[in-house]
Task: structure prediction
Amino acid sequence: MPLASLGARAETLARPVTMIVPFAAGGPTDVLARILAEYMRNSLGHPVVIENITGASGTVAGLRAARAAPDGSTITIGHWGTHCLNGAIYQLQYDVREFEPIALIASGPQLIIGRPDLPAQNLKDLVSWLKANADKATSGTAGPGSGAHVAGVFFQQLTQTNFSFVPYRGAGPVLNDLMAGHIDVMFDQASNSLPQVKSGTVKAFAVTAPARLAAAPEIPTVDEAGVPGLYIAYWHGIWAPKGTPPEMVSVLSKAVMAALAEPAVRARFAELGQDIPPPDKQGPAALRSHQTAEIDKWWPIVKSANIKAE
Ligand code: MLT
Result:
């Protein structure tokens, strides 16, 4: 998108923009944020500075973002966990629905992965191993009530297994500990673990989707691998604090969409197993309606599963 078509950018955003990332640096949300920030700079004419604010499954960052000045200088990236699940699981001092939507970015499944020396060779083996090691098996998560935790609880219910959840400040540090053998399994966003799966430093057992990933067609789906129906689509979006003026929302949204149209961004997202929606499903209205539909779908499920943050 030519710079001139961003119209009021110079007038509305005359300084760098801070993008809050609610998890640790190097994890899946951080990676997507940094790719987009680099290209948003071209449109905005100012840097987009990443600030990682971690803790409590993104709710520490959520509160900070909710209370930031609504002047276009602060935006936050978030996802299925931060802007859907957290609203059902945590007693929050903000409402996950109160932000101004900027853009729906992309969606990708999780991978069920294990430490490299885990004896299991496939998902059925993994279920048997977990049953035999119920007193000591561990699964790392990006925090209590995070997507990894919720997926793990559903997996336990579907497989009649029981293992402990270990909370971290993001999926990046979990993956490091999985590779080092400090924890056993992880329900991880594919974008985080695909490079390690490819290099053989973790074991991949299944993808939580009805179809295999184009970026890793060798990994079976949960249906094929023996835990049918465990579908998790981890979508990311970008929001601004409530009350951010519409003209700033529009400039920011166009900058994200221009970044998503860049061939280099599209290629990198494809490598990470990320599906970018078509342009007419990326803007503020599309993100609002996607988030609303996800809340309508998941809040009753999470509440009836009695998943707690503590
Ligand atoms: C992260 O960046 O650490 C993740 O998005 C956390 C998660 O899987 O929810």
User: Anything to note?
Assistant: Confidence is low (pLDDT under 50) at residues 1-5. The longest strand covers residues 100-114.
